[in-house]
Amino acid sequence: MRARQTPSQTVGPFFKPSLIHAGVENLVRSETRGDRITIEGRVIDGDGAPVTDAMIEIWQANADGRYDHPADDQEKLLDSNFLGWGRVATDADGGFKFHTIKPGAVPGQNGALQAPHINLSIFARGLLKRLVTRIYFSNEPLNTTDAVLNAVPRERRETLIAKAQPDRSSLRFDIILQGAGETVFLDV
C-alpha cells in the first residue's frame, strides 16, 4: 500500500456553532474599572466583499495595564470584574462589535511602555493560520514611542488605529484582508 499525503486544510467555517458563545463579546461588568469603549468594524476581503463567517478574538490588559495571566507578574491591580478577552463571529455584513475598556499601557522590550492597545486575531475560511494585528487609539501620546507601531511603515500605521465615530458612541476598526488599505498583520 502506497502512502498518500494529506492535503492542507484551511480553518473554518465551524466557528459560530462551535466556538462562539453569547455574551463573550462583552468584556465588562457593571463593576469593571476603566473607561468603557465599544469597538465595531467589518472584515472585508480583497474584492471588497464582507467576510461573513470569520471569528474575531481580542485579548488585552485591564485599565491599570495588567493582563490576567500568570506570566504577568507586575505589581499592578487585577480586576476580577474584567474578562480580558472576547470572541465574536462576523455577521451577514462582515460586521463585529466588542464592549470593553481602554487598556492601560503595558511594559514592552527593556521595560519601555507600549501604547495602550488591544491584541486581535482573525480566523476565517481560506486562512491556513490566524491573522494577528493590534488596535491602537488615536491621540495616544505613547503611540509615538511604541516599538511595534513604529516598526510599521508610516503610511500604513493608520490601518492599526481605531477611529472615533462622529457621534462618539464607538470606535471604528475595519479589517481589510488584502489589497488597497490592507490592515497590517503581525508575524507572531
Structural commentary:
The protein starts with 14 loop residues before the first helix and ends in a 12-residue tail after the last strand. Helix 2 (about 145-150) links the parallel strand 8 (about 130-135) and strand 9 (about 160-165). With about 190 residues, the protein is mainly beta. It contains 2 helices and 11 strands.
Helix content: under 10%
Low-confidence runs (pLDDT<50, min 5 residues)? none
Shape estimate: globular
The fraction of residues in strands falls at: 25-35%
Largest sheet: 9 strands, mixed
User: How much is the radius of gyration in Å?
Assistant: 18 Å
Main attributes?
single chain; 188 residues; mainly beta; 28% strand; globular
SSE order and pairing:
Layout: H1 15-19, E1 36-44, E2 55-59, E3 85-89, E4 95-101, E5 106-107, E6 113-114, E7 117-123, E8 131-137, H2 147-151, E9 161-164, E10 171-172, E11 175-176
Parallel strand pairs: 1-10, 1-11, 8-9
Antiparallel strand pairs: 1-4, 2-3, 2-7, 5-6, 7-8, 9-10
Short structural summary:
This protein is mainly beta.
